[in-house]
Design a protein that fits this description.
- The chain has 227 residues and is of the alpha/beta class.
- 32% of the residues lie in helices and 27% in strands.
- The protein has a 6-stranded mixed β-sheet with strand order 6-7-8-3-9-10, sandwiched between helices. A 4-stranded antiparallel β-sheet has the order 2-1-4-5, with helices on one face.
């Protein structure tokens, strides 16, 4: 289990995250919030990849161990987390062909996997690069996999296939997303607004309260504009 206790992230005197308390069980959890709410900062804090200009306070426990108290190199060595950024190209050397990092790609994700493997990252479209990066991250063995808007560059047809693959994986996932079709198939949801956690629940309880995922998203994302 991943347990976040009184987690705050500051840039100087301004907080980006404030007193986040959240327990993330094994399975698949959605982190929801408007743009700039703090979703990406939370994922990066968990993955220990925040910029050095930011100050972090609080605790992040993984199976009882406070990972923030471990040396940074030990956190990476133990491979607790893997993180997929929104800027998928950041994972790859632009001067190295994809095949140097990945041996094969799923044929149901790509029309021409061989062409992708023989390509340099800058020659791929945003959607192609996002799929490559997502497949690469999901193939890694870690305790939790953190995905930041993993399907936002994909067209409708490709998105359906990729979402199915994400959900069929047995990995523990924490996913920052606004995609209702993805959210409705996850186990839990949490909502961040202006750096604060304002809602957390199982998906079942969320649907009992709001009826539809779309109504749940509309309620919180429109309410954030009024706060």
């Amino acid at each position: 289990m991943l347990r976040i206790v009184n987690l705050s992230v500051y840039c100087g005197e301004k907080y980006i995250l404030k007193d986040i308390n959240l327990e993330i069980q094994k399975g698949k959890t959605a982190i929801v919030g408007s743009s700039g709410a703090g979703k990406t900062t939370l994922l990066k804090a968990i993955a220990s990849i925040l910029p050095k200009s930011l100050e972090i306070k609080g605790n992040i426990f993984l199976n009882g161990c406070d990972i923030l108290k471990l040396p940074i190199d030990l956190r990476y060595k133990r491979r607790y987390f893997n993180y997929l950024p929104q800027e998928s190209g950041a994972l790859f050397d632009p001067l190295t062909k994809i095949k140097r990092e990945i041996v094969s790609l799923p044929t149901n994700w790509f029309d021409n996997p061989k062409r992708i493997l023989e390509s340099y990252p800058p020659r791929l479209s945003g959607g192609e690069l996002q799929r490559v990066a997502l497949f690469f991250v999901l193939s890694q063995e870690t305790v939790f996999t953190l995905l930041d808007e993993p399907v936002n560059f994909l067209d409708y047809t490709t998105r359906e296939v990729v979402v199915d693959s994400i959900l069929q994986s047995r990995k523990n996932l924490v996913i920052a997303t606004h995609d209702p079709k993805l959210i409705r198939r996850l186990d839990r949801v949490a909502v961040i607004d202006k750096g604060e956690l304002i809602f957390k629940s199982s998906l079942e309880e969320t649907l009992n309260r709001f009826g539809k995922v779309e109504d749940f998203l509309r309620y919180f994302l429109s309410a954030s504009k009024d706060r």
